[in-house]
TrEMBL record:
<protein>
    <recommendedName>
        <fullName>Capsule synthesis protein CapA domain-containing protein</fullName>
    </recommendedName>
</protein>
<feature type="domain" description="Capsule synthesis protein CapA">
    <location>
        <begin position="59"/>
        <end position="285"/>
    </location>
</feature>
<dbReference type="InterPro" id="IPR029052">
    <property type="entry name" value="Metallo-depent_PP-like"/>
</dbReference>
<comment type="similarity">
    <text>Belongs to the CapA family.</text>
</comment>
<dbReference type="InterPro" id="IPR052169">
    <property type="entry name" value="CW_Biosynth-Accessory"/>
</dbReference>
<dbReference type="InterPro" id="IPR019079">
    <property type="entry name" value="Capsule_synth_CapA"/>
</dbReference>
<dbReference type="Pfam" id="PF09587">
    <property type="entry name" value="PGA_cap"/>
</dbReference>
Length: 328
């Protein structure tokens, strides 16, 4: 009987001891923290995906030739108001991200007040009109930009920069301009195909065009090419079409043309709009209906592609002001 009591007591003590050790082991396990290296390894194997920022819509407007010398300058001096040429149309450029223009006349010192001649000189104060219009980018790759020699090109570029307007088409550096618009990078190329060919600007060749397009497509989300090309007072040429399509084939998203002083055809090639010539915008060529007509282009980009585009006809009135109508 004593023996059985002994074994019962021993069994009870054993249960208590085992229970205590089980309790201690569980408590230790509960108090242990995860090993940091395991968490880090898990995160590296299963990275948390980052949400891609969706590009905001970009609205771009473009106009044709702006010449602020000769008879236009005479008018500005008489008016004593350098915003005068743009006062009947600037309201159409509100809420626009980019305004691109071809500046056909360089700024100069002591510009002569004259209504004749083919050497253009614009008063430095006439940049006020470009600002009123909201110009953000001015193409300088054209056949009149050296009318005031190298100093005139430098002066023009400096005045534009002081007024937060980017010069497009100068041959310095890579020859292209990349601007951050909202959360989108836009490359602007300006190329001249009309003599004389001043070395300070990009003069058009297929080799240069392809080189700049290669750089632009690597550097930007949208590529805009501004061509100064074609034949005056005519519709588009075969060369214009070949160059435009070459540009699109190599990454251009929008083609803007000028120089003929006529509004030329609009073409869509591989979903890219090609505006062969926007005609005149501010000019003193009053002798024909065609030279007084032009186009204002509006292009909207969504997700880095053209979503909509339109062309608004304008007519230059007797005071050299573009208006949104097709007859004087």
């Amino acid at each position: 009987m004593k023996t059985s009591h002994f074994f019962l007591c021993l069994f009870a003590v054993t249960l208590v001891v085992l229970g205590y050790f089980e309790y201690r082991q569980q408590k230790v396990l509960n108090e242990q923290k995860p090993i940091p290296i395991i968490t880090s390894l898990a995160n590296s194997l299963l990275p948390i995906p980052k949400e891609k920022i969706k590009p905001e819509p970009i609205t771009i407007m473009a106009v044709g030739d702006i010449m602020l010398g000769r008879s236009v300058n005479t008018k500005l001096q008489k008016q004593a108001d350098f915003t005068f040429p743009f006062q009947k149309i600037n309201s159409f450029f509100k809420n626009t991200d980019v305004v691109l223009a071809n500046l056909e006349s360089p700024f100069g010192e002591n510009c002569p007040v004259t209504d004749t001649g083919m050497v253009f000189c614009a008063d430095k104060n006439s940049v006020q009109g470009l600002k009123l219009l909201g110009v953000t980018h001015a193409n300088l790759a054209n056949n009149h930009i050296n009318n005031q020699a190298k100093n005139g090109i430098e002066l023009t570029n400096n005045i534009l920069l002081q007024n937060k307007i980017s010069s497009v088409g100068l041959s310095t550096g890579s020859g292209i301009i990349v601007s951050q618009i909202k959360n989108t990078k836009i490359a602007f190329l300006g190329l001249n195909d009309v003599p004389p060919y001043p070395k300070e600007i990009n003069n058009l060749s297929k080799e240069l065009l392809l080189k700049q397009l290669e750089l632009a497509t690597k550097s930007a989300d949208i590529v805009i090419v501004s061509f100064h090309w074609g034949n005056e007072y005519q519709q588009k040429s075969k060369r214009q079409q070949e160059l435009a399509r070459l540009a699109v084939d190599n990454g251009a998203d929008l083609i803007i043309g000028h120089h003929p002083h006529w509004a030329q055809e609009i073409e869509k090639y591989k979903d890219v709009p090609i505006f062969y010539s926007l005609g005149n915008f501010v000019f003193d060529q009053m002798w024909s209906k065609e030279t007084r007509q032009g186009l204002v282009v509006k292009v909207v980009f969504e997700n880095d592609k053209v979503s909509t585009y339109s062309a608004l006809p304008i007519f230059i009135n007797k005071d050299y002001q573009p208006e949104t109508k097709t007859t004087p």
